[in-house]
Amino acid sequence: MKELELVKTFFEQHSDELLTEAGLSKVQFAQAMGIKAQNVGKMIATKNVLSLIKIAKVLNVPFSFIVNGPQPSDIEIHGCIYVNGKPNLITSKMELEELLKSL
User: Fold this and answer.
1) Above pLDDT 90, what percent of the chain?
2) What is the dotted CATH code of the domain comprising 2-70?
3) Residues 49, 51, 52, 53: is their CA dihedral positive or negative?
4) Strand ranges inside 48-101, DSSP E
């Protein structure tokens, strides 16, 4: 069990940011989780799967995001890259990789 305790979930590492993005204070988060405000720290550090599932529901994000954070397939790409003066609209990782291969 000690090895698991060394691994922090994405939520544990970024809880302040994630709560802010969800528009929740720690007190509001505690209420949504059905716990006392003084237990928020323990909840943030939890490795309990059922608690992590509930956290994901409260924050309206996938469970995998709570545990691992954003994955490459979750990352949105939107941009324009000019190559020799010609604009190339990029909307996915695949399009970016194809453009790089063509160079």
Assistant:
1) 70
2) 1.10.260.40
3) positive
4) 79-83, 86-90
Q: Is-contact 26 16, C-beta < 8 A?
A: no
| Beta strand pairing call for 86-90 and 79-83 | antiparallel
**Domain ranges in the chain with CATH number 1.10.260.40:** 2-70
Report pLDDT for 77: 82
What average pLDDT does the structure give for the chain?
89
Query: How many alpha carbons lie under 13 Å from residue 93 in its C-beta half-sphere?
Result: 6
28-48 per-position pLDDT tens digit: 999 999 999 999 999 999 999
Q: What is the pLDDT of residues 58-102, one digit of tens each?
A: 999 999 999 999 877 667 788 899 999 999 999 887 888 889 998
For the beta carbon of residue 46, count every other beta carbon within 10 angstroms: 17
The three-point CA angle 9-44-19 to 5° equals 95
Residue 26 CA, distance from chain mean position: 18
